[in-house]
Design a protein that fits this description.
mainly alpha, 9 helices
Length: about 280
């Protein structure tokens, strides 16, 4: 037991150090994208999408990651989950840059951030006492309401992407965003977001420890990313990109719902003995 405690403490020290380095790299990557937009070599609407996510990464996600690291060091369960959610966002977001951005000078940074966030999150979760963390969620936490939202989101995304694929594959109608961008977004959503939402919903509905933790990560990630899409749509509307203005309320509402789901999960999390 002593050896396990020492090993867990060492793992936590490593994951914290990696997370601080990742926070710095995420800040640098997003700041360069905002201040030097010519670094991106994509068409206008894709550059606008990068701008939206860069703004959210720099001004929302990096501060959340820093706050989560500081709070979790004091024993805060809520801080720990925000830390994990910010790392989850880093995995998903940097997969887009790594696979979707036109090749540019920051490509190695995208790869490093994707790998770093992925492995740091896995190591952090491996070193977490899942049962102890889940035990701090209040009995009154509306797990079934949040699980219903997650299931609706997961099933809705799967239907939306697979329906567009079917229309293209069997009807020859190219998706409105183009075949390449469609393949990228659909692949990442179907492989990362949909399974996280659906598996998390089932486990959360049954109030399993991993369900509570996975739900917190998925909802933090989802709310942060739809906020980025809201910002990207607003920037696109300002630049006269057709259809962008209509997307602002759609992503804005979905962001509010995601924030509400996250708040419902974390609002009544009990403090740890150290808090």
């Amino acid at each position: 037991m002593v050896d396990e405690a020492i090993q867990a403490k060492g793992t936590t020290r490593v994951t914290r150090g990696l997370s601080w380095a990742l926070a710095a790299l995420m800040a640098v990557q997003s700041a360069v994208g905002i201040l030097v937009p010519s670094a991106y070599r994509d068409v206008l609407w894709i550059r606008t999408a990068w701008l939206g996510t860069d703004v959210v990464t720099l001004f929302v996600v990096v501060p959340l990651l820093v706050w989560g690291l500081l709070a979790s060091r004091r024993g805060s369960t809520r801080g720990e989950l925000l830390w994990f959610g910010a790392l989850g966002y880093g995995v998903y977001n940097n997969a887009y840059y790594m696979l979707g951005a036109a090749l540019n000078r920051a490509f190695p940074l995208y790869v490093a951030l994707f790998i770093g966030c992925l492995w740091t999150l896995l190591l952090a979760l491996a070193g977490t006492n899942v049962g102890e963390t889940a035990a701090r969620f209040a009995e009154r936490t509306p797990v079934r309401v949040v699980a219903g939202y997650m299931a609706f989101t997961g099933v809705g995304l799967a239907i939306a992407w697979l329906a567009q694929w079917a229309v293209f594959a069997f009807g020859g109608v190219t998706p409105s965003i183009g075949e390449g961008p469609f393949r990228l977004v659909a692949s990442l959503d179907l492989s990362l977001i949909v399974p996280a939402m659906l598996v998390g919903a089932v486990l959360l509905w049954r109030r399993r420890p991993w369900g509570l933790i996975l739900a917190a990560i998925a909802n933090i990630l989802g709310a942060a990313y739809t906020l980025g899409l809201t910002a990207a749509s607003a920037f696109g509307a300002a630049r006269g990109i057709a259809g962008s203005a209509a997307q602002v309320p759609v992503w804005g509402v979905w962001t509010l719902v995601g924030v509400a789901a996250t708040a419902a999960l974390l609002w009544r999390v009990a403090p740890s003995p150290a808090e």
